[in-house]
């Protein structure tokens, strides 16, 4: 890999005084850069498809023009989004913490406002006009059945299992038995909105500062999916659900703030959030199917995600009724 200090100087005009690797990122190697003027930057060195990464940056720039809080990318001196020699991109450094500790208190409406603004802006993206699709398309239950069957057979065929793998096999069997319920949940929903989305709006990609959203980060290339699914990714994040019942009231606050910011949002999409999130999570083998060894952080997430799926399933009728009451037609 080329010398980053030289590339920062020659390609970006940034003279690095400090360069520290950040232990985060799956498809990137990340660095915190402090230049000679004391300004901090975030450098992402890519290991994947550059066209995909470029499309993700372009989507970030698109939503930034809609006043969504996202980091600003610094172009090279030649005006490029990515320096392909490394390859890398350079961003303003955002102070804050991720939402991985769960959403509580005033953070709920703060997140709802930003996600509403994000989806309102993305509904204008030229790649795809928002449209209605059958909710059953949110999770291919037949494919999920095959995936779980393969996973369970693979685990059972191993000569020995680690404690996590033993638990994962039991969890996979429990979820496999519930896939019929997941299909029934989706079949009972109305057609829902599909549009261009962030693509990975989970808690590690939401930066918080005190009770405000500092930035939405790490966009995927613009691809249509269900808005209810993306809201559930953050509003029903396992790390939040397992904190206790506060997530039920909190989600209502999030959705009310979302609607205030995005008045054109359909109430059917908002009230279907938990149902879609529940069915989608029940049908997902991640991270149960991850190859060994599974680290402590991912194991904790696997257990939290399984618990959250079961909690959402158990509480779904109650939560659906509450969301309908809170988000019903406005009276003027």
From TrEMBL:
| SUPFAM superfamilies referenced in this protein's UniProt entry, alphabetically | Protein kinase-like (PK-like)
The record ties this protein, via Gene3D superfamilies, to: 3.90.1200.10, Phosphorylase Kinase, domain 1
Domain Aminoglycoside phosphotransferase, residue spans? 19-256
Q: Listed GO molecular functions?
A: homoserine kinase activity
Transferase as UniProt keyword:
yes
- Residues of the signal peptide: none
Protein EC: 2.7.1.39
Keyword annotations: Kinase, Transferase
Membrane-spanning residues where? none
Q: Which InterPro entries match?
A: Aminoglycoside_PTrfase (IPR002575), Kinase-like_dom_sf (IPR011009)
Q: What is this protein called?
A: Homoserine kinase type II
Query: Which organism encodes this protein?
Result: Kribbella shirazensis
């Amino acid at each position: 890999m080329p010398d980053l200090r030289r590339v920062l100087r020659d390609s970006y005009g940034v003279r690095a005084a400090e360069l520290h690797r950040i232990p985060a990122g799956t498809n990137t190697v990340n660095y915190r850069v402090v230049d000679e003027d004391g300004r901090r930057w975030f450098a992402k060195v890519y290991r994947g498809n550059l066209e995909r990464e470029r499309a993700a940056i372009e989507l970030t720039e698109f939503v930034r023009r809609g006043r969504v809080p996202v980091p600003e990318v610094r172009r090279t001196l030649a005006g490029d989004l990515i320096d392909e020699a490394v390859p890398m991109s350079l961003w303003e450094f955002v102070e804050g913490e991720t939402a991985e500790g769960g959403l509580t208190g005033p953070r709920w409406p703060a997140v709802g406002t930003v996600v509403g603004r994000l989806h309102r802006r993305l509904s204008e993206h030229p790649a795809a006009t928002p449209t209605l699709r059958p909710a059953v398309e949110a999770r291919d239950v037949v494919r999920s059945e095959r995936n779980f069957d393969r996973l369970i057979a693979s685990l059972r065929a191993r000569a020995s299992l680690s404690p996590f793998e033993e638990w994962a096999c039991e969890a996979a069997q429990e979820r496999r038995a519930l896939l019929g319920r997941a299909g029934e949940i989706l079949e009972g929903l109305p057609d829902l909105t599909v549009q261009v989305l962030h693509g990975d709006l989970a808690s590690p990609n939401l930066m918080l500062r005190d009770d405000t959203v500092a930035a939405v980060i790490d966009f995927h290339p613009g691809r249509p999916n269900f808005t209810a699914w993306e809201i559930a990714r953050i509003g029903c994040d396992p790390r939040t659900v397992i904190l206790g019942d506060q997530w039920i009231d909190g989600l209502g606050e999030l959705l009310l703030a979302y609607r205030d910011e995005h008045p054109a949002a359909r109430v059917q999409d908002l009230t279907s959030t938990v149902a879609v999130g529940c069915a989608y999570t029940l049908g997902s083998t991640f991270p149960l199917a991850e190859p060994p060894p599974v680290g402590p952080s991912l194991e904790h997430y696997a257990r939290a995600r399984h618990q959250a799926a079961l909690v959402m399933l158990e509480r779904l009728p109650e939560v659906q009724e509450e969301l309908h009451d809170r988000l019903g037609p406005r009276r003027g």
